Amino acid sequence: MAPLTTTVDQYKLSSLPTDGVTAVRFQPGKAAPQFLVASSWDCTVRIYDVASGSQRLFYQHSTPVLDTAFSDTVHVVSGSLDGELKLFDCNTNQNQTLGSCLRAISTMHYNSNIQACITASSNATDSKGGAQSVHRQPSTVYTMDSIRNQLVVGTAGRHVLIWDLRQMHAPLEQRESSLRYQTRCIQCFQMDKVIY
Fold first, then answer.
1. 148-152: which pairs have CB atoms within 8 A and are 24 or more residues apart?
2. What burial class does residue 97 get, using C-beta atoms within 10 Å of its C-beta: 0-12 exposed, 13-18 middle, 19+ buried?
3. What are the tens digits of pLDDT across the range 28-38?
């Protein structure tokens, strides 16, 4: 079934999740990505072919999946309500457990510079690679993103923290957001040599 395209940037997908979608991410590293990954409260992670609009692959967790991301062009990481962190290989259709957190993985981000998945849990902690290295945050983490060696975290109470991923003993900067409402999404970008 071909997707019904209304514009160049919109696609209709088949085999949709049966419950609420928690995250949607495009495949990295390409101007025109071939795949899209979506996680859901129905305990599944689905990988779609953008050109055809069809579901190519899917795998399951035992509890709802709260976030997902591509770690590279063929591997997907996902975190669930029970704190399980999984890695899925799109070439072999196999998944493995990378680690687990004590609480639900509320958000996650894969940093290719340090080649690690950074997860945030509902108990106001974040960690690199499951429970390898745990760092306390001032409150519940709602969003995060990284670029190169910097991690930007948005928490409850409108706090924004900037961390150096090489030295996570203390944040480089911590401030209250100038926005009136809670920050729910942070995206890093670089202009010239300055990271925003």
1. 148/113, 148/190, 148/195, 149/113, 149/114, 150/188, 150/195, 151/109, 151/111, 151/118, 152/186, 152/188
2. exposed
3. 876 677 899 99
Q: Token pair of 186, please?
A: 């942070």
Query: What tokens were used for 133?
Result: 């290295």
pLDDT tens sequence across 51-107: 899 999 999 999 999 999 999 989 999 999 999 999 999 999 999 998 888 788 889
Classify domain 1-100 at the CATH topology level.
Thrombin, subunit H (2.40.10)
d(CA 78, CA 70): 9
Q: 124 burial class (0-12, 13-18, 19+ CB within 10 angstroms)?
A: middle
Q: Using CB atoms within 10 A of its CB, is residue 139 exposed (0-12), middle (13-18) or buried (19+)?
A: exposed
pTM for the whole thing?
Answer: 0.82
Q: What angle do CA 126, 131, 137 make, to 5 degrees?
A: 20
Distance CA 38, CA 183 (A): 22
- Domain boundaries in the chain? 1-100
> How far apart are the C-alpha atoms of 84 and 103, rounded to whole Å?
9
